[in-house]
């Protein structure tokens, strides 16, 4: 007759079996289970075989020698700037911008603001009666490749522009735009804004979001104005301004994924 084993012996055999199974699992690396920091494949929210969503962040790139790349934390926008320049956050004007919009100033080592970047712009274009229109002049206009792709050959694609508008002097401004100034080279104001992705909204990168002539009482040390168009061309033709222009032209933005509008 076969002798019946004791409960103690059964427990020992069970422990040996479990230990052997664990060792085999480690050696063969064939066990499945939850990994540190997340669940296994069965817990994934993306069904097997689904296409990978297109990236919706600003393209990554390397800066040229002597320059660096600034990218906002959400990777919605990036641009190059000289190594010694700094990017500082700004406090937005209440009600003028969408929630979670971007606001930065780019400053030189001397503390001069070379450009400001604002996203989520909500300000509507003001009415422009014919009697208030005044001549404006474009003294620089170059296409932008905001998404890293070549710009389309059309006059409503984003561009870097330098423009003057006439008041008691010629008032100057520079930035990016996707809007023409006005019919017959007359306008009340000139918009330096571009429509970006859905997350970015309408944004600006330049000295002013909107250029408009000022009355003498509203001018100050920060007002950029000229007595002649030739003076303006000389001012914007300096090597110092060439650096600002190159920085603004380097801006690239995130795009909406397929099927979504901007």
The proportion of residues in beta strands is: 25-35%
Average predicted confidence as pLDDT: 80
Shape from CA axes?
Answer: globular
Instruction: Determine the structural class based on helices, strands and strand pairing.
Output: alpha+beta
Strands ordered across the widest β-sheet: 3-4-5-12-11
Distance between the termini: 85 Å
Largest sheet: 5 strands, antiparallel
What is the number of helices?
A: 3
Can you describe what's shown?
The chain has helices at 7-28, 229-235, 239-249, and strands at 67-71, 77-82, 86-89, 103-107, 113-118, 134-143, 159-166, 170-177, 186-187, 190-191, 194-195, 202-206, 210-211, 225-226, 252-253. It is an alpha+beta fold and 262 residues long. It has one domain. A five-stranded antiparallel beta sheet has the order 3-4-5-12-11, with no helix packed on it. Strands 9-6-7-8-14 form a five-stranded antiparallel beta sheet. It has a three-stranded antiparallel beta sheet with strand order 1-2-15. Strand 7 (159-166) and strand 8 (170-177) form a beta hairpin. The longest helix has 22 residues, at 7-28. The N and C termini lie far apart (85 Å).
Features:
single chain; about 260 residues; alpha+beta; five-stranded antiparallel beta sheet; 3 helices; disordered N terminus
Write a short abstract of this structure.
The chain has 262 residues and is α+β, with helices and mostly antiparallel strands. The chain is 15% helix and 26% strand.
